[in-house]
TrEMBL record:
Taxonomic lineage: Bacteria, Bacillati, Bacillota, Tissierellia, Tissierellales
EC number: 4.1.99.14
Highest taxon of source: Bacteria
Enzyme class, UniProt record, top EC level: lyase
GO molecular function: 4 iron, 4 sulfur cluster binding; DNA photolyase activity; S-adenosyl-L-methionine binding
Protein name per the record: Spore photoproduct lyase
InterPro entries, sorted: rSAM, rSAM_sf, SPL, SPL_Clostridia, SPL_firmicutes
Keywords linked to the UniProt accession: Lyase
């Protein structure tokens, strides 16, 4: 049976300006009506009042906090290599993955933020698309968040998918671990949105991806999107080496094969699938943040077992050794071709 991971915040902060937007007003009225404690905040970027006696408590408190804000920045960040630009619909997510790639950027209190000025955000998107015509412009909706857990409150994802459905030169893609996607099934996507699921083997989900749906539930959700004729794809990340990693990751492909072929629409071919693979890596800064919040973490982060690689912003990361990465790469490329012949592997790093 599907375990629904339902995000209900314990407290809500809102920027008073959010009340000037219909979505902001609707949400603030809604949280008031169900008696969730609410407080104004001057900026969604700097929220004070998320407390906790220890780093672990503060982190948990933040993950149960929703901030309703207005996104004022007039530019979108670039988003290489998966897209041209980020499209910020939300920041952070209620999941508690130990390795979360946002833990370094969002600091020790990664509270969940949503933006209510969606029309302005989509107007900016339109301007960018038009400025690059006749090129196609691709936007990534999950660069700073997992946008699905807050969709039931905002409807922003559906609105964005339908916006791109009407844009001949715009494409949208995002990735999620969450499965509450039924409200998106009949959105008019016009094949302009690629819906990617972030998957991992059961072992990794159980040990490191707390408060996120199980593998089977994610695979079922992906098969529903496929049936709804969305272009779909998978990010398998981070890939870990551990005892039995081959068996565990093979099981993942077996499960995916079963559900996708059972639910594929007529004329679908595995050639329409995309895969992205990311082997585990960490920086010393991320390691120290992770151990602050998860002091008993079993994430493999032993510098002596890894190769140090200089990063582009002056800090280095610890990756698996080249022969280990080659073995992983060969394994995943072979499995992809065996189970989904012709599927596109966008990258393996
Ligand atoms: S689901 Fe994604 S964004 Fe959320 S905690 Fe996990 S890795 Fe981070």
């Amino acid at each position: 049976m599907e375990v629904l991971i339902d995000f209900i915040p314990k407290q809500v902060f809102y920027e008073p300006d959010a009340l000037n937007y219909p979505l902001g007003k609707k949400l603030i009225d809604y949280f008031q009506s169900i008696n969730i404690p609410m407080k104004p905040t001057t900026s969604h970027n700097r929220v004070v009042g998320i407390v906790g006696d220890t780093p672990q408590e503060a982190y948990k408190e933040a993950k149960h906090t929703l901030v309703i804000g207005v996104r004022r920045s007039k530019t979108f960040q670039t988003c290489k290599p998966s897209a041209h630009y980020q499209l910020p619909l939300a920041t952070s997510c209620p999941g508690m993955c130990e390795y979360c790639y946002l833990s370094t950027t969002l600091g020790p209190k990664p509270y969940v933020r949503i933006y209510v000025n969606i029309e302005e955000i989509l107007d900016m998107t339109k301007n960018i698309i038009e400025s690059r015509a006749p090129e196609i412009t691709i936007f990534e909706g999950a660069a700073t968040s997992d946008p699905v857990p807050v969709e039931k409150y905002t409807g922003n994802l559906r609105r964005t998918i339908e916006f791109f459905g009407r844009e001949p030169l715009g494409r949208f893609r995002f990735v999620t671990k969450f499965t509450d996607i039924d409200s998106l099934l009949d959105a008019e996507h016009n094949n302009h949105t690629r819906f990617r699921f972030s998957l991992n083997c059961q072992y990794v989900i159980k040990h490191f991806e707390h408060k996120t749906p199980q593998l089977l539930d994610r695979v079922i959700a992906a098969s529903k999107m496929l049936k709804a004729k969305y272009p779909i794809g998978f990010i398998i990340a981070p890939i870990f080496r551990f005892e039995n990693w081959q068996d565990e990751y093979t099981e993942l492909f077996v499960l995916l094969e079963k559900y996708l072929y059972e639910n594929m629409p007529p004329n679908w071919s595995p050639k329409d699938l995309t895969f992205e693979f990311i082997s585990h890596r960490y920086t010393l800064r991320a390691k120290s943040n992770i151990l602050n919040v998860f002091p008993k973490s079993k994430l493999p982060m032993e510098e002596k077992e890894r190769k140090f690689k200089y990063g582009q912003f002056g800090y280095g990361k610890y990756i698996y050794n080249p022969d280990e990465i080659n073995e992983l790469k060969e394994f995943f490329l072979n499995k992809t071709e065996k189970f989904f012949p012709g599927a596109k592997v966008e990258y393996f790093i």
